[in-house]
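Report of the visiting student (M.T.), summer placement. My assignment was to run the structure pipeline on a short list of targets and document each run. The first record concerns MOSC domain-containing protein.
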Amino acid sequence: MRCSVKDLFIYPVKSTQGIAVPHSNVQECGLAFDRHFLVTDTKGKFITGRSKAKMVLIQTRLDANGLILDAPQMPSLPLQYLEFSDEYHPVQVWGDNFKGQHCSTEADSWLSRYLGVECRLYYFGPNSVRHVNNTTHPVSFADGYPLLLVSQASLRDLNQRSSEPVSMAQFRPNIVVKGCGPFAEDSWHKIRIGDVEFLVSKPCSRCVFTSVDPITGRRSENKEPLTTLRKYRQGRDGEIYFGQNLIPLNSGKIHEGDHIEIISSQAPVF
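After the run finished, the structure tokens were exported:
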């Protein structure tokens, strides 16, 4: 079997439920519509599923003029691009400080009510500027890189070792690959999918967010998958790694079923 794209996912609002898509336009900052919205506290610091696990239960629906959010025991929240505020405020994602376009007080109130803490919702607007660390390459509200790739074989390998089943959704990838061996992606340096060439930049470090069940919003009592991954995927820096961060080197379109062409390889860390 040749290596190919099994699934594609976007996460329009950072830390909320993903959307499976059959194809996607790849832009400089990642897949179209991926992580273009960010929930913050009143000071602009990002809020994610690491601290608010129930964020994974927020569902997003895209429409022609914006998107619609749904969550348990909450009314639907329509968000229209043309109705967003013109104001840009400082926001923070990890160590990056930049500006996001404030959406609306209605969105703030809806999220505050659902999460039980005062929130703000921001859009990565035309005047928002952020770059991948130590590069000039743009990135939106993702943790640090435009895309994340994981192979199905790597997840299968993990589940053969884990004390409880782990789903791919817990790792929140953009691209899921099939037809390769476990952790084959660790040895890729440059790849081509469809129209787009990607730099496989670095392994993705994983945190407690991976222990949140995407169906129930509850954390694993056994702290899986981190407990198992720590046994064989922990780097010298103490971080736990699973999946690879990608930087697109050009724009174009990718589809489910596209062949993964390995342009160049590198020595894997593990």
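The longest strand covers residues 196-206. The chain has a mean pLDDT of 97. I thank the supervising group for their guidance throughout the placement.
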